[in-house]
Write a structure and sequence with these properties.
Layout: H1 2-22, H2 27-46
Length: 54
């Protein structure tokens, strides 16, 4: 059931990403955003923020 919901939602999600990020931002801006998000993710993972414990 979960996989079907994910598959059904993916096209709408990808369309929104295009509409709100890819279309209005330059390639350089998208690269900077990707770098920033990767750093943020790494920081959160290093701090085990949002990770299951136990």
């Amino acid at each position: 059931m979960g996989r079907k919901l994910l598959d059904a939602a993916t096209p709408a999600f990808e369309n929104d990403l295009r509409t709100w990020l890819a279309d209005p931002l330059t390639v350089r801006s998208l690269e900077q955003l990707a770098t920033t998000l990767a750093r943020r993710r790494g920081t959160r993972e290093d701090g085990r923020v949002g990770m299951p414990t136990g």
